[in-house]
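Q: Predict the bound structure with zinc ion.
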Amino acid sequence: MQPHEYLLKGKIVCGTCGRAMIYSNTTTQSMYRCMSTHANPAAACHKLKVSTADVDDMVITTIKKQAEVILNSDDLSSFRKTTASNKRLDGLGIQPNNADVEKQIELLSQQRQRCYECFMNLEIDRDTFRSMKSDYTSQIDALTQRRAMFQQAAFKRDADKKTAALAKDAMRETTAPKDIVNALIDKVFIFPGNQIEIHWKFTSFAETGAL
Ligand SMILES: [Zn+2]
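A: Predicted complex:
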């Protein structure tokens, strides 16, 4: 690996001072070092350093462990199956129902408008109008709520699908570690005592660990 292409480039942050840690490759060992407090012996992260290989190993191990947990979780078990069965699941999806709900809301709004016109034309009295109007409104409200639920379910489904796809990629032996890291890791915070905190790009992967 080229020195400027090390695995966690641009992602290693000193958890104490919040500055980027510097990659340094000596003849003996490569390290991430906090240089921002180098001249300040009183700082908690003064001369803080951590072995690059240790951090890399810990990050990759954590990713694989999390990917395994995700792929074994009940929520996502359906996404483990073959693409064919995923397609079948897609067929049972949210969209047709949602379109139906949309149509019903539209229809009820039109009916409510019509009953207002009837009232204005003195075809129905005020009490009838009020009771019809409130009936239509509560039906529309219930459907609007249902539509929101469908949308939420569809959103969660998409997110789960994306998470499962990322987890599958991470588990695949042929995926380059650099690609896995770039897809999943936002930042890695280093604290004194070899404590590490991973900030994921996807909260679904969230997990903290120590060396
Ligand atoms: Zn620092």
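A: Residues 81-95 have pLDDT under 50 and may be disordered.
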